[in-house]
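Worked example

This section walks through a single chain of length 65. The input is the sequence exactly as stored; nothing has been trimmed or padded.
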Amino acid sequence: MPKIRKHTTRRVTLKKKYSIQKKIKDSKKKIKKEAKKLRANGILPRSKSVITLTMFRDKERIWHP
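Given that input, the structure is written out below as C-alpha cells.
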C-alpha cells in the first residue's frame, strides 16, 4: 500500500529566512536614504495617512446628498 503524505510543512530554511530579512532591511534603508535626500532639497515626503469619512464635518451631506 502506498504511503499518503498528509501535508507539507511550512517550515522555512534559515538561509531563506535571513535572505528575506536582508532584502527587507535593504529596501527600508533605500527608502530612508531617498527621504533624507528629498528633505535636504526641501521637499517633504508625503505621509500615508488614512482619511476616513468620520473626519469630515459635513459627513451627513456626503452620506445623504
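What to look for: The longest helix spans residues 14-41.
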